[in-house]
Amino acid sequence: MEEEFGQYNFNFLGYVIKKVRVTDDKLIIEGINDFTVGSLIFEGAEEGFEIDERMIGGKVFGIKRKPIDNGFTVFRIVIDDAQITQTDIVAKNMVFKV
């Protein structure tokens, strides 16, 4: 039976998405939370990830994670105030840098 997503991580609550880009094997979501500018960096992102521009301008509500095979994890980003309500990113790791 497939594992369910874990609990929400609310560390990014209100983080407004300003820019999304892909470099090498990283997906980078840049944004701002109050006065803190930072980046959510998904390392080892699954090849062929398509950036959905509809997430730009939205506010991150929280992020859930679900481990899958070969050391990868599905990161489900739940978004408020955007044209989409969630997006899934398959990557090996996620870090937040300011």
Automatic annotation (TrEMBL):
Naturally occurring in which organism (per UniProt): Butyrivibrio fibrisolvens
Highest taxon of the lineage: Bacteria
Name of the protein described by the UniProt record: Uncharacterized protein
